[in-house]
Amino acid sequence: MFQRRRSAVALRHVAFEDLGLLAPIMEREGWNVSFCEAPVDDLSHSSIRDADLLIVLGGPIGVYETDSYPFLTREIDLLERRLAQGLPTLGICLGAQLMAKALGARVYAGNVKEIGWGSVTLSDAGHASCLEPLAEGAPVMHWHGDTLDLPDNAARLASNENYENQAFAFGNHALALQFHLEADPRQLEEWYVGHAVELAASKISVRDLRAKTTEVAKTVARTADRVFTNWLSQLGQGNAASKTAQAR
Predict the structure, then answer these.
(1) Residue 163 above 70 pLDDT?
(2) Is 245 among the domain residues?
(3) CA-closest candidate to residue 52, choices 19, 92, 18, 10
(4) DSSP letters spanning 101-140
(5) Pick from 228, 188, 195, 247: nearest CA to 88
(6) Looking at the domain assignment, is residue 84 inside a domain?
(7) Theoretical Cys-Cys bridge with 94: which of 7, 59, 66, 193, CB 3.0 to 4.6 Å?
(8) Cβ of 15: how many Cβ atoms within 10 Å?
(9) At what angle do helices 94-102 and 71-85 cross, to 10 degrees?
(10) What residues contact 87, with CB distance under 8 A and at least 6 apart?
């Protein structure tokens, strides 16, 4: 029996921060993905508003910079509607912060800029979630200076020594990751160029960052595959259960 491929839309803020390791996983798991350029595209279009899954990617701006970047307000409105309707949504870094804002939580500049590979500590809810493969200190890419408060009715999934809220879930349909689990080690050379000014200002050695990336590359790819495959599988189960309930 033919099974319809589901539609996903990825909201992108800068060209080099894309789906990375998530792209081949989406293809394998039966998703058709289209990209929307958040700063310039019409975010009210039905293909975005009603997509089976919305993925909001990272970017080098702050959620609170709506005066300089008015499109952020449109993103927040879009996320507010989707989250209220229980539509599957994934936010990464800036995307996670936009989700928090859409859910009424505060997003603000943090005390520490995190750039580089590090681990996170899972909460009880995190251990019971798709993030369980991160439990043994698996490396993830941190690249942010802002942080967020945990939204009401959200479950904290992960923390580290610098920030309490590194990941959260909202219901069974929404996942927010402050870190870049999708970052493809092979594509990070583009990040080093795109964020050259930030790296220099933070006195971070590109050579050292590149060496660490080479060291963790295989582990990172395996972990991302396990986490994202698990989460996409949960979405499929949730959609099936919802359709069954509607049929009764």
Answers:
(1) yes
(2) no
(3) 10
(4) HHTT--EEEEEEEEEEEE--EE-HHHHTSTTGGGTT---E
(5) 228
(6) yes
(7) 59
(8) 10
(9) 70
(10) 50, 51, 54, 173
- Token pair 């043994």: residue: 136
- With contact defined as beta carbons under 8 Å apart, do 137 and 119 qualify? yes
Retrieve residue 234's tokens: 């949960």
Average pLDDT over residues 199-219: 96
For residue 1, is it within any domain?
A: no
Residue 111: per-residue pLDDT? 94
The yes-or-no verdict on residue 119 having pLDDT over 80 is yes
- Percent above pLDDT 90 for the chain: 90
Asked whether residue 246 is assigned to any structural domain, the reply reads: no
pLDDT band (50, 70, 90) for residue 243: very low
Say which residue the tokens 């990272």 belong to. Answer: 58
- Secondary structure class of 184 (helix, strand, coil): coil
* Alpha-carbon gap, residue 242 to 142, rounded angstroms: 35
Residue position matching structure tokens 């681990």: 119
- Over the stretch 10-31, which tens digit does the pLDDT of each residue have? 999 999 999 999 999 999 999 9
Residue 58 neighbours by CB under 8 Å, 6+ apart: 13, 17, 92, 93, 94, 95, 143, 144, 180
pTM confidence score: 0.93
φ, ψ for residue 141 (rounded to 5)? -90, 120
Total domain count, the chain = 1
User: Which domain covers residue 87, as residue numbers?
Assistant: 6-240
pLDDT at 87 over 50: yes
pLDDT (0 to 100) of residue 5: 84
Measured between alpha carbons, how far is 55 from 184 in angstroms, rounded to an integer?
A: 16
Predicted confidence band of residue 103 (pLDDT cuts 50, 70, 90): very high
